[in-house]
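Running this now, will post back.
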Amino acid sequence: LRAEAAKEAAWPPPIAEFILNQQVEILTPFSFAPAWSPTSPAGVYEMRQYTFRPGTLPDIQEKWGAALAGRLEFSPVAMLGNIEFGPTTNSFIHLWPYDSLSHREEVRRQAAATGKWPASVTEPYLQQRNKILVPAAQ
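Update: finished.
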């Protein structure tokens, strides 16, 4: 894929002078994660990344697989999968598109009110990172 991308005249984009550091990770989507094809960019995205104990991924996937349908009643998920390669292996990421921060707050409140979300796991996560992302202007 990298070789194919390099054939494009606009790749890589001329931004090297702005890169201070770079982290590359390979993500494997969870088998039950729905495909996402946006009709237009969301106003904001929330990216959550959880680090977990080695060997607990099957339990995490089982719990998330059982709970995800209920969460999707409130908003779509753009990405859901575990890191196979990179500096943060033993972690998984989920990315949610929202119209705005207030839309995010409302969706999270509604999902939590069901008592079925967030998906529970047997062991606590070792670390959680959360980012609010705003798409760049095109």
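DSSP finds three helices and five strands in the chain. More later if anyone needs it.
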